[in-house]
Amino acid sequence: MSTSTTNLPLGETIAPADQAAVAEAVRNAGSQGLAVYPRGGGTRLDYGVKPQRPGIALSLTNLNRVVDYPAADLTITVEAGTTIAELTKRLASQRQQLPIDIPQPDRATVGGAVAVNAAGPRRYAYGTIRDYLLGFTAVDGVGGTFSGGGRVVKNAAGYNMCRLMTGSLGTLGVITQATLMVRPLAEASALVVCDVADLETAEKLLAGLIQSPTRPVAIDFVAGQPADETVLGPMSAGTVGRLYVGFEGAAAEVDWMVEQLRQEWAALGATAPMLVPAAQTESLWRWLADFAADVQINVLPSAVVSTMAKILPLDPKCAIQTHAGDGVIRVRLPLLLGDGQSEEVSAAHPIGQLRQIATAAGGTMIVLGRPGSAHLTAADVWGPPGPELGVMQAIKDRFDPQNILNPGRFIY
Question: Which of helix, strand or coil describes residue 232?
């Protein structure tokens, strides 16, 4: 996905030094009728509907302090511009982690990750960043400061504002500070991989994992024509995809699960399952986390393989990554969506075809990046609006009455 700012109708870029300066910038923009486009590391600028109104880019990169880190409580409070890489480094010093796989961690920020509800391969065991946001502070559309949640793991007071803010794409408030729950760093991490001859075999191997006594943290099935991953190289000739199963925990526990899975796969006829060398495991985790995609389809886990079977023929260069245990299918169509198409989206357009496939499977679809120069509406990106739109619009009006925070980027 592009990280260029050329798609944004921006005037100047403002980088406030602290939360008070953020609030002042929002108030000033509102008084001038300008939109405000909050920005972290700029890694997800193509996510959502292309903004139309002129305004300012509000960079949060200067808000990068660690505010509080009571490691014994398994929480950390940081400013929103803190990069994921810096957060990871700070947590590792105490043998702790935020177990969310976020692409481009050197650039991606905590505030941005919350705004898009970031997740990756390990969501099968650990969920998304929504499950780790304990509290936050933000600036609303009139320049007022507000907070939600708290700084402790057990906090049941009031409405769950953290879930409201997570995934709202900066349309309800500019997040300036976040408190996150963290976990102890796993003693060992391993990936077991096998190439899969056909989708029927894939279905059998995935079904076997449901009955397995092992407890994976990730189940990713990659098919089609992905960019060659540098650790293992291209898939074997004549195979349809590659299955990656990840384990974390105590070293003895991980060793047992790896051997157990290899035995199970051998009994199911899997070809040459291999344990990724320890020195290369982290690189492979990173490749899975950084896997680029144009759209994401969510279906029941039992419908993953049958849905893939309908998608693969659409584009001979198609690449698909599934978080199979969660029913998440991420699709890249380089021939159909990478050629600068400018037509309106219709049922015959690749995005329209993919949405029909998702709907037929009882699922939903969202566009992860604006392909080419296609004219995408909110319905094209997020799907047809449902009955909840009225409630969501009312919430937007309360937090941002002037509609200056990322106007039009989300469903309202």
Answer: coil
Burial class (CB in 10 A: 0-12, 13-18, 19+), 21: middle
Cα separation, 140 vs 404, in Å, equals 10
Is 155 within 8 Å of 134 (Cβ atoms)? yes
Secondary structure class of 257 (helix, strand, coil): helix
* Cα distance between residue 75 and residue 68, in whole Å: 8
The vertex-248 CA angle with 242 and 251, nearest 5°, equals 120
Query: Maximum CA pair distance of the chain?
Result: 68
Buried b (16+ CB within 10 A) or exposed e, 181-219: bbeeebebbbbbbbbbbebebbbebbeebeeeebebbbb
| CA-to-CA separations, 181 to 46, 132, 258, 355, in angstroms, rounded | 28, 5, 28, 35
**Which is it for strands 10-14 and 55-59: parallel, antiparallel or unpaired?**
parallel
Q: Token match 């991953």: residue?
A: 229
With contact defined as beta carbons under 8 Å apart, do 91 and 76 qualify? yes
The number of CA neighbours under 13 Å toward the Cβ of 58 is 35
Q: Supply the pTM of this predicted model.
A: 0.91
Question: DSSP string of 369-391?
Answer: S--TT-B--HHHHH-S--TTHHH
Domains of the chain: 1-185+388-412 (3.30.465.10), 188-286 (3.30.70.2190), 295-376 (3.30.70.100)
Question: What are the tens digits of pLDDT across the range 106-154?
Answer: 999 999 999 999 999 999 999 999 999 999 999 999 999 999 988 776 6
Q: Which two tokens stand for residue 136?
A: 């936050």
Residues 164-209 have pLDDT tens digits of 999 999 999 999 999 999 999 999 999 999 999 999 999 999 999 9
